[in-house]
């Protein structure tokens, strides 16, 4: 077998240094010869419907009609060229949106046109499809400038998330309408394969494995399984050389091993739930594609790690569309219910099946569209009729502890949901937030992690921690002698302990190590407790400093209406009228409130992110500055 050497693109996110467990699940279980023997030949591989009759048998008529209508709306879509000026926006101004609007817009339009034509089969979408394919093939780079820091070197193709997505799209075009394209010109499909081979297949098979998302020594993030899933799809649908086809698939298996090797034993995703849908869910995409293409001969669904990795998503679900959003994760998601349902069935996880059914009932559009993961979208369409008419109720889990990423989630009978974590400050998509916590009351945010802003050049540069939403000063954490936490792997929690019982769910940890030495902290033992007897959240900081401090502050972030008229009690009113009291000692603390900036391209999303409510920072300033003390705060429904 030709030696497989993997290439990796420049990462957009920080990758933490943690221990790698050389599980190598695929490599230990299968060889490339196993893949060659099991793989369905190219000419016999027919994973999706191709005729109107096949579509009608597999997908509800109402869904098919909507897909055709979506295609009709795009018959006059203009597939614009991407200029050099737009390609340099990222370098010149830091903006990513103008390029993204053009690039993603073309690919989304092509996908909708493609499905409409396959479903209808009258040829009326073909000219638009041809123009879309040709326009994309004419691009110098299939990815985004942010991932190569400007213009592409066409002699050195770079594989990134969106070049891989485009390769998968080329495979789908070839599968669904390839023969119709031949009637326009025999050169179109030839061009599609040529470009995909040059931009994806050859780099993935021949370039040095010295890049982050294929590292054998460091944990890799969502880039790995996301790209692997698209490489698999493109390979299955475009590569006719059976030997090379099997070798590339085996390469994707070894590549997926690298992501699984970087997970802890609990399968936690340090990037947060919104990124899990690109990470853990993309692992499922890989497993599903491989299993279906080998008549279930390549199958690792029974591996305990896969089951634990999957369970992360429902263990971090708060309520409705709210999920735990540490790091760059978004607070609100519309979860893909059909994918969750299929994944749950594959691993025999009843809770995930129930969550999938619930999510599809409440957020069906999340399973039907989207800009990425196109093979997943098609599999979703084909699974709608598989859903049972009567579904079991979905009851979120009561608590969970992920020792690998040091995340605790827990609920109380009064509707409180608390999440808190330790970890370190070099996690993927890191914010400096060791010891942070959040509180929701009956599904409404009270104490929040504000989340991330808009991605720009500054977001993933050495200026990342100049942005307020990445700083510990804008998380629910102390500011000590004017110092917030510092970014880097060495800045971490120590003496971390989790306790879960019927009476409480508690995380205790020393967060002193997350700050620079200049902060002058000997120890800062923080305890975050959900008291299930009193239905309160109790925050305690027991600290010893090297010297008497010059300043000491405690921060709480919220979107609630704030009432400070009662000394020692901050009343936080949610949009639905719930009132949560935050009790503090007024003899120790002065109180002020600030509104973080929403001006500038990185902050625009904060105008609307929290249902148009402003993010506010409550700052308690210590009146009496002492070297050693123990401070407590209590949150309860008023």
TrEMBL record:
Broad class of the protein's primary localization: other
Locations listed in the record: Cell envelope
Domain Heparinase II/III-like C-terminal: residue ranges: 401-542
InterPro entries (UniProt xref): Chondroitin_lyas, Hepar_II_III_C
Gene3D superfamilies linked: 2.70.98.70, Chondroitin AC/alginate lyase (1.50.10.100)
SUPFAM superfamilies: Chondroitin AC/alginate lyase (SSF48230)
This protein's name: Heparinase II/III-like C-terminal domain-containing protein
Source organism of the structure: Emticicia oligotrophica (strain DSM 17448 / CIP 109782 / MTCC 6937 / GPTSA100-15)
